[in-house]
Q: What sequence folds into this?
C-alpha cells in the first residue's frame, strides 16, 4: 500500500474488517476491536491520526511492566554535561562483537526539549548484530525515524511487515509495537520526535511538484503472529525503560484501517529542486519531512536530504557556504562523500553537530578546490547525506562527549583558511 497520510484498510484474513454499518461490537472471527489514537480526539480532521485494529487479544492483556536499566538510551532533561558551543564530529561507532540486539544497541548522542510537554527531539545511533526474538518494543515518548546506513532490516510491527535497506527510512509512530530482524551487522541513525508527527512540508512557491512525493511512501499490509509462550515487551515511557511479560505475541492484529501506521520511504526517489542561476539555495529545499510547531516556519525538527543531484548554477560557490544558524544541525552520512567535507573525517556512519550560532561550513581543502572549480553543470555522485535540523539546541550526552569516536581535532579542518585580503 502506498501514499502519505491516506486512509488505509488491509486485512490478513478476508472478512476480518467490518464493512458498511457492521459494528465493532462483535467483530468477525471472534477478534477484539481496539483503536489507537496518535492525536487528541478533537484534533482537526486534516491532522487527526487514528487507526482501528482487529486483533486476537487486546493490548491490555499482559503482566505489569517493571523498570529496567536504560542502558545508553537517554531522554529529557539533557543535562548530564554542559553543552559546548564548539563544532562536534564523531567517527562511526563500531558494530559490537558480542551479541547485541537492535534494542540493546541504541546509543543516545544528543537531545533537547521536554518529552512531558511534547516538545523537542532525541538523536540516537544504533549498532547491532542480533535480531530481536520473542522481544518487542514500543515508544510512548515519541515517533521514531530510522535512517539505515548499513545492513538490511525487517520491522515486524502491529500493522504488518516493513523490509528496508540502506538508503531507506522507516517511521514508526508513537506507541506502535515492533521487533527488528537483521540481515547482518547493522548500523544507522534514529530521530526520536517528541513533538507533532512528521508530515510532508508545504511546497509554497515550488508549486505542486517536487521534493518527496506522497505516492512513494509505503505502509505495510496486515500480517499477524498467532503465537503463545513467553514474550517480553519493552516500553520507553517518560524517558525510562520498562519491561512487561506477555503470554502471546503482541503482533496479533489480523486487520486494520485508519491513517495512523508505520511507513517507509526510499531516499533515492527524492526530487531535488536546485538553482539554475546564481547564489546557493537554503538547505530547506531538501526537506523530506517536517514536524511543525505552533510558530509558522519553525519546525520542532526537519529531516533534510542531500542526495546525488545536478548542480546547475553560475557565479556561485557550489558547496554549502560558511554560516551560523538559529537552527541546530546534526548531520549523518549514509554513503559516499559529503560535498562540503571532501578533506576527510566525515565518514559513512559518522556524524557532526553544529549548534545555534556555531560557525561552520566547508573545510579548508574543499574551499580551496571549489573556489577554483570551473563553473559548469556538475553531477554530484557517490553521496547520500542527511540532516536533522532542530529548533532547540541539541545537548550532547555524557557518552557522546567522552567516547573514543569523538574527534577532538575536528576544529583543525578550518585552520587552513588563512587571510587572503588584499587592499585595493
A:
Amino acid at each position: 500500500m502506498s501514499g502519505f497520510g491516506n486512509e488505509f484498510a488491509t486485512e490478513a484474513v478476508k472478512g476480518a474488517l467490518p464493512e458498511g454499518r457492521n459494528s465493532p461490537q462483535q467483530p468477525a472471527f471472534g477478534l477484539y476491536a481496539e483503536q489507537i489514537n496518535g492525536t487528541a480526539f478533537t484534533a482537526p480532521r486534516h491532522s487527526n491520526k487514528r487507526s482501528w485494529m482487529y486483533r486476537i487479544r487486546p493490548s491490555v492483556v499482559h503482566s505489569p511492566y517493571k523498570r529496567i536499566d536504560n542502558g545508553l538510551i537517554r531522554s529529557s532533561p539533557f543535562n548530564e554535561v554542559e553543552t559546548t558551543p564548539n563544532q562536534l564530529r564523531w567517527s562511526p561507532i563500531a558494530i559490537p562483537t558480542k551479541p547485541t540486539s537492535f534494542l540493546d544497541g541504541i546509543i543516545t548522542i544528543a537531545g533537547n526539549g521536554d518529552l512531558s510537554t511534547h516538545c523537542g527531539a532525541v538523536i540516537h545511533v544504533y549498532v547491532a548484530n542480533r535480531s530481536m526474538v520473542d522481544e518487542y518494543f514500543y515508544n510512548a515518548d515519541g515517533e521514531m525515524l530510522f535512517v539505515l546506513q548499513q545492513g538490511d532490516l525487517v520491522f515486524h510491527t502491529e500493522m504488518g511487515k516493513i523490509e528496508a535497506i540502506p538508503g531507506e527510512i522507516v517511521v514508526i509512530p508513537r506507541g506502535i509495537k515492533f521487533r527488528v530482524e537483521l540481515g547482518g551487522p547493522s548500523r544507522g541513525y534514529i530521530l526520536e520526535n517528541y513533538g507533532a508527527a512528521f508530515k510532508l512540508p508545504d511546497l509554497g512557491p515550488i508549486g505542486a511538484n517536487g521534493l518527496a512525493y506522497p505516492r512513494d511512501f509505503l505502509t505495510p499490509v496486515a500480517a499477524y503472529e498467532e503465537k503463545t509462550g513467553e514474550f517480553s515487551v519493552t516500553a520507553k515511557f517518560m524517558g525510562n525503560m520498562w519491561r512487561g511479560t506477555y503470554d502471546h505475541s503482541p503482533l496479533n492484529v489480523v486487520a486494520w484501517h485508519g491513517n495512523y501506521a508505520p511507513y517507509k520511504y526510499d531516499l533515492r526517489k527524492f526530487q531535488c529542486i536546485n538553482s539554475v542561476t546564481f547564489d546557493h539555495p537554503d538547505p530547506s529545499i531538501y526537506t523530506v519531512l517536517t514536524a511543525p510547531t505552533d510558530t509558522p516556519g519553525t519546525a520542532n525538527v526537519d529531516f533534510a536530504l542531500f542526495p546525488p543531484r545536478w548542480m546547475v548554477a553560475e557565479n556561485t560557490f557550489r558547496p554549502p557556504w560558511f554560516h551560523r544558524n538559529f537552527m541546530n544541525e546534526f548531520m549523518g552520512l549514509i554513503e559516499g562523500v559529503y560535498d562540503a567535507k571532501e578533506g576527510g573525517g566525515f565518514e559513512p556512519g559518522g556524524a557532526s553537530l553544529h549548534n545555534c550560532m556555531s560557525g561552520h561550513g566547508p573545510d579548508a581543502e574543499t574551499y580551496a578546490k571549489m573556489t577554483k572549480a570551473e563553473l559548469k553543470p556538475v553531477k554530484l555522485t557517490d553521496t547520500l547525506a542527511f540532516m536533522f535540523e532542530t529548533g532547540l539546541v541539541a545537548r550532547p550526552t555524557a557518552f557522546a562527549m567522552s567516547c573514543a569516536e569523538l574527534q577532538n581535532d575536528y576544529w583543525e579542518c578550518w585552520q587552513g583558511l588563512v587571510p587572503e585580503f588584499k587592499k585595493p
